[in-house]
Amino acid sequence: MMAAWQKVLELFHSEPASAKKQLSLPEIVDQSRRDWLYAQSCYKTVSDPDLVDYFSFLIKAYERRYVYLLRKARDEGICCPGIISGIQDETTVRRVF
């Protein structure tokens, strides 16, 4: 459980956006997918009611971000087959297209 809090704190203490390298859209989509899956795995491990609420909201936020980025990639004609095919575990993705 402590690792989950450390990950949450890292989100707030990250480097400024200008110091980070610019990622391509497929990389951003993949990172968004990994964030979403990470939030789901954290949700499964917490038992504190406040953390359950927090991770349920975080899952929803990451899911919406992921869907938005998938649509944006599709609109720009970018194909990310490796990203979409990587989701075959117990998680589900709403129909995006």
How would you sum up this structure, described in words?
With about 100 residues, this protein is mainly alpha-helical. The chain is about 65% helix and about 0% strand. It has helices at about 1-10, 25-45, 50-75, 80-85. Helix 2 packs antiparallel against helix 3 (about 50-75).
Chain-wise SSE layout:
Blueprint: H1 2-12, H2 25-45, H3 49-75, H4 81-85
Helix pairs in contact: 2-3
Number of separate strands: 0
Largest sheet: none
The topology string of helices and strands comes to: HHHH
What's the overall average pLDDT, rounded? 77
Structural class: mainly alpha
- Fraction of residues in H or I helices: 55-70%
Distance between the termini: 36 Å
Task: Name the descriptors.
mainly alpha, elongated
Short description:
With 97 residues, this protein is mainly α. 66% of the residues lie in helices and 0% in strands.
